[in-house]
Design brief:
The chain is of the alpha+beta class and about 625 residues long. The protein is about 35% helix and about 15% strand. It has 16 helices and 20 strands. Strands 13, 14, 15, 16, 17, 18, 19 and 20 form an eight-stranded antiparallel beta sheet that branches. α3 runs antiparallel to α4, α3 runs parallel beside α5 and α5 packs parallel to α8. The radius of gyration is 25 Å and the shape is globular. The termini are far apart. About 50% of the residues are buried.
């Protein structure tokens, strides 16, 4: 695959202080495990998508079941358009062109693009949600073809579609915006993100005015989503509905429900865009409070979240067999929300969250050939293809899946004033512009991280430049050792950026050794293990996963890296632990050596019966003993 065709833009209002500027993915080339996973996703998923099939729905305005067929093209464009530039593949370029032509041809004279009949447009169901994704698809095309007739064609179609929505649902429109759709209007409210995008690209005030109207509708109506006031009160996401004063919780799938995880996070994505455009700090505070609640109250050891697509205080319940854990749409949207918070705040915390989710829940959701994404990825259980949606041979998670790789690519390295910021570690090369210098710096990475602990980096910038190289030191790495040109750096702190300011010359070498000590996580007679950022699991290809752990677990379990038994496995370790409820047998009382693999590889063959276990039950003891 070759690079460079379409530029990728990151826009913000001129006044706003954007802490980190994401890299142009054309300037990032990944090798090794992550690079192979990315290439397999592009080749076997993005490039194999039938664009005619996912755009047929726009020519048929007879939707009566309140389904969401019109989301698939917009989701596809989120990854297909950037990857068309990343690969410079004529076949993929032709596919995105075909999609644009078909969607624009289906646009009604009044601007509507969708498949709902006239009398039910912009009401119940997923019509506005579908138009949100269509707007995003059109604007992704515009960003990749800006300055060309085809780019203007996409922008004009987006403007006509947004103008239609404004006439229907803007100030003085036919109905209050929050009353459309499901879940207190949250799915429809996610249209805020592309509306602000449209304002950024056109600077037409009517789009910013409409965005302000949307924010009002998202926050003021008492039965609406209440995305500002509840967040500013720092109400945890799992308590947003029903409120604590409600006597009896109604059923989950009702209009008033504010617990839908995917849609809620998408709303805050829009509120962060609105903050950048206007400077309204309450929108930023609400988004940060909400994301902190998600990280604290919902995210599990694999970086995933939600049960049945809803918040449920899952961090303390992740060891239990809850239904439909960590929907892939939730996983990719959490990655995107963390990415936006990283760009806006510059806080290393969000990069740590991205790393954990990417290496675990996200990569685990992808079939080993890259051709499909699962709907749900349980911590304990088996992995299979998700159910098809809307009588179509796809589903929301399969369409959303490829978007996650873009988060890793764009944030692999970033520019930050006078600094180049390294957020993630993987074999490859990245170039990023240091804004104050208006120069690109280039670094190579050679590493098997996080399989091994060592990362070697070489500066490949051709001329000497004065700048700061900021290295993210993960919070989990208690003792990290860093050398620059063989000189040891002191005071390397976990959970912070290490700043290395110097005149950097071509060939300067940085060596990093992370602390991959295994950590044990305990919850109510259950334990799980992580090694660095990676959750470790057992699966039936390498032994019985149902045995319990006996008492007297070691405080610091030792995991030994060993050769993989299968090319489908990324990381394999052995550990000697007291597995098995056979303590009455002298032989069985001794610890056993068992095999663990990285959570993403466990069960990746999608074969029924290949079970995965991440949380392990521990024996119960009668208080006081026998």
């Amino acid at each position: 695959m070759k690079a460079i065709l379409f530029p990728v833009f990151a826009l913000a209002a001129s006044w706003a202080c954007v802490a980190n500027v994401p890299a142009d993915i054309r300037d990032v080339r990944l090798k090794g495990y992550v690079g192979e996973r990315l290439e397999s996703c592009i080749r076997h998923h993005v490039m194999e998508t039938d664009v005619s099939y996912i755009t047929d729905c726009f020519f048929d305005r007879t939707e009566t079941r309140n389904w969401w067929q019109t989301e698939f093209w917009g989701k596809y464009m989120h990854s297909a358009m950037p990857f068309a530039g990343y690969t410079e593949c004529p076949r993929l370029k032709a596919a995105v062109d075909l999609g644009l032509d078909r969607v624009v041809a289906a646009q009604a004279p009044e601007g509507y693009i969708g498949n709902y009949p006239d009398d039910v447009r912009c009401r119940e169901g997923w019509d506005v949600w579908g138009m949100k994704y269509t707007l995003l698809g059109l604007l992704h095309y515009y960003d990749g073809a800006k300055g060309t007739p085809r780019g203007e064609k996409a922008l004009n179609a987006a403007k006509k579609l947004c103008d239609f929505v404004i006439r229907e649902l803007g100030p003085g429109g036919k109905r209050e915006f929050w009353t459309t759709g499901n879940y207190a209007g949250m799915p429809s409210s996610t249209i805020l993100e592309p509306v602000v995008w449209l304002y950024n690209r056109t600077q037409e005030k009517k789009y910013l005015d409409f965005a302000s109207h949307l924010v009002q509708q998202m926050s003021e109506p008492t039965k609406g989503p209440r995305l500002l006031d509840l967040a500013l009160q720092d109400v945890p996401v799992y308590k947003r509905w029903p409120l604590a004063t409600d006597a009896k919780p109604p059923k989950s799938f009702v209009k008033e429900n504010r617990l839908k995880a995917y849609e809620m996070m998408s709303c805050y994505q829009g509120l962060l865009e609105y903050y950048e455009a206007t400077g309204r700090k309450d929108c930023l505070t609400a988004a940060v409070n909400t994301a902190k609640s998600i990280a604290r109250d919902e995210v599990n050891v694999a970086g995933g979240a939600a049960s049945g697509e809803h918040w449920f205080n899952g961090a303390v319940k992740q060891h239990l067999p809850y239904k439909h854990l960590q929907e892939t749409c939730v996983t990719t949207t959490w990655l995107r929300l963390c990415e936006k918070l990283l760009a806006v705040t510059g806080d290393r915390f969000w990069a740590d969250e991205i790393e954990k989710t990417f290496y675990n829940a996200y990569l685990a959701s992808m079939r080993r050939d890259g051709g499909a994404f699962s709907a749900y990825t349980p911590l304990n259980g088996s992995r299979l293809y998700g159910h098809d949606h809307c009588r179509m041979h796809t589903d929301c998670c399969n369409a959303n899946g490829p978007r996650g790789f873009l988060v890793f690519l764009r944030n692999f390295m970033q520019g930050d004033d006078k600094a180049a910021v390294v957020n993630f570690y993987a074999s490859g090369r990245a170039a990023v512009e240091v804004p104050a210098l208006k120069e690109k710096v280039v670094f190579d990475q050679y590493t098997l991280y996080p399989k091994n602990d060592t990362v070697l980096m070489w500066n490949r910038t051709k001329k000497p430049l004065d700048f700061t190289l900021k290295l993210r030191i993960p919070a989990w790495s208690a003792k990290t050792h860093v050398k620059v040109n063989n000189e040891e750096i002191k005071n390397v702190k976990p959970g912070a950026y290490l700043e290395l300011a110097r005149t950097w010359k071509d060939g300067d070498r940085v060596e990093v050794h992370f602390d991959l000590a295994v950590r044990m996580h305990k919850l109510d007679h259950a334990v799980a293990f992580t090694r660095g950022p990676v959750a470790m699991a057992r699966e039936t290809r390498s032994g019985d996963v149902g045995e319990v752990l006996r008492e007297h677990l070691p405080a610091k379990p030792a995991f030994t890296l060993v050769r993989n038994e299968s090319p489908d496995i990324w990381i394999t370790c052995t550990a000697t632990l007291p597995f098995g409820g056979h303590s009455e047998n002298p032989d069985g009382a001794n610890p056993a050596t068992v095999t663990f693999v990285d959570y993403a590889s466990a069960g990746n063959d999608w074969v029924p019966g290949n079970n995965v276990r991440t949380w392990f039950a521990t024996e119960w003891t009668i208080p006081g003993g026998w």
